[in-house]
Write a structure and sequence with these properties.
11 helices, eight-stranded mixed sheet, disordered N terminus, alpha/beta
Length: about 260
C-alpha cells in the first residue's frame, strides 16, 4: 500500500506514464504553471516531485536554469533520458537539499497529494525561495468534479475493492480550496491565490484509458493479468458514455493552481 499511497512507480510504469499519461493528462498543465510562476529566461527554478520532467522541461524551454527533484528513481531515469541537460536529483520535498533563498521560482505539478508531510514540504519550498519569489503548486480538483475518474474509481471499487480503488482516488484528495489554504497558511504562506482552470483528459480509446491508468500508475503492481483483462472487459460497457462515435475518450479534468509570493 505504501507505493499506492505515495504515488511511487516502478521503472516500467514510469515509461508508460511519460508515453501515455503526460500527453493524455499532464502535458497541458506545465505551461500554465510556468505562467503562474512567471518563469522567465535567467530564472533559477526548482521543480519538486518532478516525475518524468514535464514541468522542468517547459521551464527550461523558457530559458530558466532548472533543477528537477524527485524521490522516485524510475521517474528520474526517464527524465534524464529525455533531457540530460537538466540537473536531475533524487530527494524528498520534506528536506530540500538547498540553501535558503536559492530559487526565483519553485513549482510542483501534481505532487503535493503524495507528500508524507504536506505542511513541512510547503514550508521547505518556501524556505528555498528568494524574497519576491513565487511558489506554484498544482493539485487535481475533487473526484466528484472529475466525472471520468469518478466513474473509473467506482468501477475499480466494484471489481476489486477499496484498497485497489484507493490507488486511483489518491490523486484527488486535495480538491477542496479551503484545505489547500489551510496547508499553505500552516506552512507560513498565507493568502495564496487559487485558480481552477478546466483541462481535458484525452485518450484514443477506452482500452487506452484503462491501460494508461493501470500500467502507467501505481496499480501496475497491484492488479494481475486476469484482473486487468476483467477490468478491460467491464470498462468497455461501464465507461462507454465517455467515448465519442470514433471511440476516442475526452472528459473534463479540472485542477487547482495555487500560487504564493514570498514576502
Amino acid at each position: 500500500m505504501e507505493a499506492i499511497e505515495t504515488g511511487q512507480l516502478s521503472s516500467s510504469a514510469a515509461e508508460v506514464y511519460e508515453e501515455f499519461f503526460v500527453p493524455a493528462l499532464f502535458g497541458e498543465w506545465s505551461p500554465r504553471l510556468c505562467e503562474a510562476a512567471k518563469v522567465a529566461a535567467g530564472n533559477d527554478m526548482l521543480d519538486v516531485a518532478c516525475g518524468t520532467g514535464s514541468l522542468a522541461r517547459e521551464a527550461a524551454r523558457r530559458g530558466a536554469a532548472v533543477i528537477g527533484l524527485d524521490r522516485n528513481a524510475g521517474m528520474l531515469a526517464v527524465a534524464r533520458r529525455l533531457a540530460p541537460e537538466i540537473d536531475w536529483r533524487e530527494g524528498r520535498a520534506e528536506g530540500l537539499p538547498f540553501d535558503d533563498g536559492r530559487f526565483d521560482a519553485v513549482g510542483s505539478q501534481f505532487g503535493l497529494m503524495f507528500f508524507e508531510d504536506r505542511v513541512k514540504a510547503l514550508a521547505e519550498m518556501g524556505r528555498v525561495l528568494r524574497p519576491g519569489g513565487r511558489l506554484t503548486v498544482a493539485v487535481w480538483d475533487s473526484l466528484e468534479r472529475t466525472p471520468g475518474y469518478r466513474a473509473m474509481v467506482g468501477l475499480l471499487q466494484r471489481l476489486f475493492g477499496e484498497e485497489i480503488a484507493a490507488g486511483l482516488r489518491a490523486p484527488f484528495v486535495l480538491g477542496e480550496p479551503a484545505e489547500l489554504r489551510g496547508l499553505f497558511a500552516a506552512a507560513g504562506l498565507p493568502d495564496p491565490r487559487i485558480d481552477t482552470p478546466v483541462g481535458a483528459a484525452r485518450f484514443p480509446s477506452i482500452e487506452d484509458w484503462v491501460r494508461t491508468d493501470v500500467k502507467g500508475w501505481t496499480l501496475a503492481d497491484a492488479i494481475d493479468d486476469a484482473q486487468y483483462a476483467e477490468l478491460q472487459r467491464a470498462a468497455q460497457d461501464e465507461l462507454r458514455d465517455f467515448a465519442a462515435a470514433d471511440g476516442s475518450v475526452r472528459f473534463d479534468s479540472p485542477a487547482h493552481i495555487v500560487t504564493a509570493v514570498k514576502g
